[in-house]
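Collaborator request, handled under Task 6.
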Amino acid sequence: MRLLHHHTRPAIRARALASHSPWTGLENEIDRWFESMLGGAGDLRDTARLPLDLYEDEENTYVRAHLPGIARPDINVEIVDGHLHISATRKTGTGDNSATHTISRSLNLPDDVEESKVTATSEHGVLTITLPKKEEAKPRKIAISVN
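Structure tokens returned to the collaborator:
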């Protein structure tokens, strides 16, 4: 399995250490690259958006979101016009002191995703969305014959 993107939190820590890191330029370049690959929806280090981890193997691409304390009915996953939309709502407090907080994220789906076979599971506060690749996009082994 190949890690495509891992979004660490908190972003403030990463920014605070940036002045001491010899990798700052490379980290910024990688962030810009992932931003362009994921639809250019802004700075990936933006803590207001839902942080995601992306993984890939030969069969699937996986999107993983950590949503501790959010119940399954409060998580919404949709595919609309080639975009994956994830949103989660957390309710805090009771009565007059109650508040609702929503976090969300949208990603452009790659052309090689079989949209009708996408699945989502939630276990122990971790949402995992499996994006199966179309058969023609999967690598295939070619037998070599000997003459």
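The cover message to the collaborator said: "The first strand starts at residue 2 and ends at 5. The longest helix spans residues 24-37. Please let us know whether this matches your experimental observations."
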